[in-house]
Amino acid sequence: MLNRAERSQSTYSALERLPLTTGTAAQRVLRRRERKIKYDQKKFFVKKFVRKKWTYYRFNLCGLPAFPVKVFYTKQDLSNLLDITASFSNVLISAVTCGLISLLSAYLLTLQRPTAIFGYPEKSFLFSKWILFLVGATCQYSTIKSPIPDVMSPGHGYAFSVAFARPIYFIFSAIITFILVHVSFSMKSNGGMTLYGCFFIDIKIVACCIELSRILLYIMPVLFMLGFYARLITLLNWSMETVEIVFFGGTGSSSLKDSILVLLRSAACVIPIGILNSLSFKNDGSLEKRIFSISSSLCLTLAYVISRASNGNPTYDLIALQRIFGFRKCDSKISFLDKNVVASAHHRLESSILNGCIILLIAMLLGIANVFEEIKSMRKLDIGPLQISVFNIVILALLTVNGFFCDYLLPRLRSQNPWIIFKHPVLRTPEYKKFEVNSAAAVMWFDKFQFFMTILMKNLLLPIAFMIELWSASDSSYFESWSIIGKSMFFAIISFSISRRFFRDCEYQWLVLLCSYLLVFDLQKYHITEPILVTWFLGNIAASKVLGLYRRLCFIYVHIMPCASTWGSAFHAISQPICMPHSGWMYLQAFISTITSAPIKPLGGASVFLTSYVRPLRFWEKTFQTKTSGDERLQSQLETHRRRNENLQRNSIFYENLAISLRNQLAGDIALGRFGNVKEGDVYILASKSTATSLNGLLQIVELGNGVVSFQLRGLEFKGTYCQQREVEAITEDEPPTARNRLCFARSLCCLRSQKWVFGLSTFFKNLLMTWRVVQKNYVMPGYSICDSSTDFLAMYDYRKLVKSSFTRCIIYFAAKYERLAELLDPKNELMKTLSRENYDSDFEVVTSVAFSHNTDVDYDLAQAGVSKVQFMHHFSDWANHCYSMAHPEETECPANFITLVFGLSVVGRKTISNASQAGNTADAAIFLNGLYQMFQGNIMPDFSDEWVFTDDMALLNEIVAPALRLAIKLQSDELRKFTVGEANVELTFSKLWKEIEAARKTVICHENDPKWREAVLNNEPELFSFRHIVTEDESSDYRLMMLVRRQLNFKIIKINSEKIKNPERGSIQNARAILRNIINSSCDQPIGYPSYVSPILTSYTSLHEGVKQLAGEEVSFTGIYEGTLRFIGDCLLSCISCNSGIGLPENIPLSSVIRSTTTEQNQVAQTWIGSIPTTGGENDAENNLDGSVSSIDTLSSLSDHDLHRTAVINDSNQVLSNLDGFRRGGPQFVHWAKNEWRNSGGARSWVEWRPENGMKGVIVWGWYPCHRLPSKRSHIHTAILLLKIEEDSKTFYVPIQKPGLIMFDSDDSSAVSSNADSGGSEDENV
């Protein structure tokens, strides 16, 4: 139906078709119609577009209802203009950054050029206000509306780092511009800075930098749009890590938080050194020299302490510091896996503090004593224009020889292929030719040699050389034009950087120092005054860059070689040779990437942007730990399509255990030289040589410190793609034998005809064109040997019958060992009553179910068509009697209720297998396996007719049925099914089966999703067993029996070129044996890679390594010093005060305190003075025996009073001291005799022919005790001596005898003890 406007339009068209002869009336009608149409069209437009109802949001300014503001925007319009930020902190930061941008922009407009450059006159304004305001406005707007990140960014959407990236870049660029302008004006008046005779920092160079910063500020929006700038977090992490490495001699860190913490720690160490340097550089007096000696020794001490701290995990050091000060609240947050590492960090920190105090004291005393001044003034040798002291030459020669052996010769001789010429290492370990190793790797003589020589170079030779050069540089004329503050801070930075670097990693420091001497020697003829210390500092920076450039060039050579490439298509065969002429451009890119720590192709290939992936050491952005099944949501665990991911997660636990093993021994193995030359950033592949353990992990060294190593491990799939398997075969296969007719290096180099030890020429060039090298062939490390066997044998009925029989025997075993068995077997118990109602107590009971079959159940009765109790008793009653007698030896007969109980549980267990498989009949092997698997993982579903099993709650199912099934599968896996019950040796077979079951129970048997499994693996349990369900590619089910045995595993260590990780071809899956592209790609972060396990940044200490402990001993700690002091005092007291001269212990000292302050040997000595206390116990035994023997006797004085006037019988006549009445040769008498009568009758001289014998009885009249305060009662030995008065034949004899040789008793017990003594004496005489 037409509306009004359409009708008017149709009428107008009809009138328009009328002829003009119709007269004026028709024309008037036409004009009226035109006006009406126009009016209708206008009214329709206003109604449709103008008269729209607008909605708005009411916003109160500052939260006050008195100031409302109407916002006429929809939600979509607001989201297009502003970011939805509910945080007040984001709003506050946005306001602050916008204000800073405005202030800095206003200040930038006032800056002037320091000199005329690029056609601009001097003192002209730098910035144009319109362009600068436009750039500042874009940066301000990005705080309220975050721009879309570039395609190379790892994350998309709103992010704090993306929203505030442009403002922070603008602020940093403005600040750098301010600094450059002010430096340029100061240099204009003071002159530039020269280095080796050249203007290192000139006003022209600074002016060029100012113009460059100006241009970068102008084009900042364009650069952000192209993605030239890195992400903010990446930039901050890279810049802080670079400053830490270059200026403070540090190493890599694990996160931005750790980078900030480590950088603040280094700055806190440098600042006090700079303050002391500024005080020492004011004058040249003796006081200033002493201050400089304090600052230099403090620098050496702080560098030593910081080098032993961890950059990868500084949290450990913070916890250790809190422990030292007595704060242990954070200990509850430490996991059981980190307790050992935290304890080691605690001991290391205490050792660092103590050793640092020693270093500080020694270095300060040497400096105050002017030892280094004397070294400078020693006799010097004129080597050309350079004068070097003899002492410097000796130190340099020792460093060169030591470094050549430790850093070059020994690593080459120990590598798998020395110089890529020899097939086998020259220096081998005993594990080299062993297929399986049963013990830890032995510490060889070359391990000890390299370990101790490295310690000598790191802790003695290099510190001496450093202190000499530091004192020499303090008097250098190079710093005469410098200000005191600049000189002091420069000295603080370079001295701290050099000392920390050689303490942290002394590798090739001797070479840098030697090159510094050679460079200074070569430049002396040009009157260069730079000290060697400055050259040493700059040489460390240049050496790291040269090493990085060398790695990049080596990778480029291998990458562009046609013979090393795998051409998967015609395109590769054509494109690869065409790219070779562009290798010059690749070399230029390698140089640029070396300076910026960027990928190897920063301006070409897939990585288009220069700074998007800057990484000084780490090559992965994320730091996360692989989630276990216990960390996921329940919904994710129940989804069937995630079964493949679950299999990967189950395999990841083995890599986690491998990471823990590496944490315990990696730092020690690197210190022993087993990894060769190691630098931070190196990447290794650990390839398992065992076919039963398919562990292939990528190991990256993040931090290398003084006895500390931080690393990350990435585990690969057990079975990867075809191309990945080919690369795994390339790194695991042995070297092929060389043909006899080929040219070999033995003939050309050594004139040898045998090719047993050397490669052929073709093999040499083939190995040369590889980005990886085999470092060690047999690297021994504890781990789990994984043996997974198939369950195809259960397809046969006989084996299923054995499994069910073993299941029943295990039910009987666990029922006999059940704790509440006596309560359950009580006839009045509700369980027994229920079994009686179910007729299980009847001997003729028959249970029928589809779960039973004569093919799989030995107690199946074909006549009754079910499982009968008669058949059950026929097959299992003897085993039940044996189990019950073994579990309850006090009972002679197995009760009938026990047979009833185990029969019922056996029926329930076998029926539960069919119920768990969700199928009635278990005749099919797949259904039977599914039932076994469901019950193994704890999915127990009894039949509704077996609800009697819940009478005792779930205890019968959880403690008898479930563990019985798991143990039965384990026994079947161990082939214990061969133990059949015979007629002749029933008891023998049952006893053997019982022992085997007891031994099998020591194995951890559980499902892999059970938390006990992960806990057992991480706790290094010796044996584990599990049942795994695997969904194959064709969606079929495969069941595997997994047996894990803890033993020593053999790994092959392959060192790969770390620049391969930065290669832009990370997305390629093409097979490349020369560069291992697939292995590296699969270890990357998702979505590029698919690692099976990714560990967090872990820290390893050398103190955790058993071999290093044997060589270097335990760490020195406050507790060790305290205990050592107590032991020393105890030794002095127990050895020095045994003579009668000196001061003994007070009489009122508690005996327990004397015992507690001694070691085990001293406890035995202390126990001997108590007499009847055994001397074989430890510290706790000594205290317990002390309390039981002397009861309320607490002091020496009370003990001596307790022994007097007691009757005693001689039990051991060998304890008699017959010469105690004499004198020492050249000294006083042994003991002080209180009465001359006792002395005249207390020795062999007065006894003549009479001798004391066992069984003689007397009265104790005196006693001498060790450590007694009174000389008259002090023993000269570590044993109490008692004087026994014996009357025999009207004669009196005094017998001094050691207390252990007596049996003492009171007068009431004299007769009983006397008879015992007589019998004891006769036994001794008979013996």
Automatic annotation (TrEMBL):
The annotated region (Disordered) lies at 1308-1327
Q: Point to the regions of Low complexity compositional bias.
A: 1310-1320
Q: Which residues cross the membrane?
A: 55-73, 85-109, 130-148, 168-185, 215-240, 260-279, 353-372, 384-405, 451-472, 484-502
Alphabetic keyword roster: Coiled coil, Membrane, Transmembrane, Transmembrane helix
Q: Which GO terms describe its cellular component?
A: membrane
Sections of the chain in a coiled coil: 631-658
Localized where? Membrane
Q: Which residue range or ranges hold the Pecanex C-terminal domain?
A: 897-1105
Q: Would the keyword Transmembrane helix be found if you checked this record's keyword annotation?
A: yes
> Where on the tree of life does the source sit, at the highest rank?
Eukaryota
Q: Name one Pfam family in it.
A: Pecanex_C
| Chief subcellular location | membrane
Q: How does it sit in the membrane?
A: Multi-pass membrane protein
> What InterPro entries is this protein classified in?
Pecanex (IPR039797), Pecanex_C (IPR007735)
Q: Which family, according to UniProt?
A: Belongs to the pecanex family.
Q: What is this protein called?
A: Pecanex-like protein
